[in-house]
Amino acid sequence: MNIEQVREFTLALPGVTEDQPFGDDIITFRLEGKIFVCLWLGGGKHDIKESSEPRLALKLSPERNDELREQFAAVTPAWHWNKKHWSDVYYEQIEDTLVQEWIKESYQLVASKLPKAVRQKLELNSQSARLEYTYPTKSAN
Fold first, then answer.
1. φ, ψ for residue 129 (rounded to 5)?
2. Is the distance from CB of 88 to CB of 76 less than 8 angstroms?
3. 37-46, 76-85, 91-100: range with lowest mean pLDDT
4. DSSP collapsed to 3 states, 41-106
5. Which has the closest alpha carbon to 38: 72, 71, 85?
6. Deepest of 89, 96, 130, 133, by most Cβ within 10 A of its Cβ?
7. What's the average model confidence in pLDDT over 65-70?
8. Across residues 30-35, what is the average pLDDT?
């Protein structure tokens, strides 16, 4: 996936909003005000000197973070976030379907902690969103 595909995919999830509370080099994606993905745009104050490869930070359970970090070199403890609950994913090094799966997993983790009425509203919206949106896939190039 490229940066635009990550953004489009994440924004297509029901109820997701984006903002830039940490500066021009990071987009945060929120569900009901709760951040679940941070997408680094490159450069700026959030640049990691060891690596300037495109990355995003995902909120996942501590067990899931440990599992993914053991399996994938492109998944590391998140820079500037609680390393127990957040991982950096160098998404250009990972298969698109896995990145999409992990973004949805992060979304679902945050959604699971919302009040029942909000979850039900999101579930209704997600059914119509699935009909209207074709998720981006990796090009053959």
1. -65, -40
2. yes
3. 37-46
4. CCCHHHCECCECCCCEEEECCHHHHHHHHHHCCCEEECCCCCCCCEEEECHHHCCHHHHHHHHHHH
5. 85
6. 89
7. 97
8. 95
